[in-house]
Amino acid sequence: MTPREPDERRLDKRQAHPKPAPGIISVTDTSSPQYAHSLQQRESATWKRWLDVQRPYRWNLRRLEPGFLLDVGSGLGRNLAHVDGQGVGVDHNAHSVGIARQRGLRAYLPDEFAESEWNRLGRFDSLLLAHVAEHLPKSEAQGLLERYLPNVKLGGKVIVIVPQQAGFRADDSHVRRIGAAELSELAEALRLRIVRIYSYPFPEWVGRFFVHNETVMVCRR
Hints:
Layout: H1 6-16, H2 33-43, H3 46-51, H4 55-63, E1 69-72, H5 78-82, E2 87-90, H6 94-102, E3 107-108, H7 110-114, E4 124-130, H8 138-148, E5 152-163, H9 165-169, H10 180-189, E6 193-200, E7 214-220
Parallel strand pairs: 1-2, 1-4, 2-3, 4-5
Antiparallel strand pairs: 5-7, 6-7
């Protein structure tokens, strides 16, 4: 049996995780102003505001009772707004941080956060990593959480949210599809106690078609 050529392997990978061309975020550099602009465009659609499409996600985050929240990979600050600004965001995209600040939210670049009053052991009740881990190789996602876990009090919550199949395909900057098994491995590597892993807002099979279905893991530090 002859080994397959590299081009064939790349073709197989594309077929396994097809990326539809229209209507997705096609910018692959998540630190670029173009990526922040893409997020802003997707978020500001008039019909989304009319229908308040964030209501179920806002409710879901609030019912987890995160307390004072450290939002790692906070983007434009949507989740910080969901908790009425009761937290601090960190993001590597300067343009996203700027937009979050314009919205009246506390947001910092990593180096800024490191020098801020908020960078203290156990300062936060919980840590949120929402729609970030899928942008990173496994070791980098773990390293990112390890960097900020000391800022969460002992017994505090760690909440990780990742997209499901359709959501993974909707952003070209996604590099790794993560399910419940991968989340469990991440928690084990970080010595976190898993409280619950669940699909939201619909059962997991809906995530094959519905872009905004998520897998949520709640842990205790």
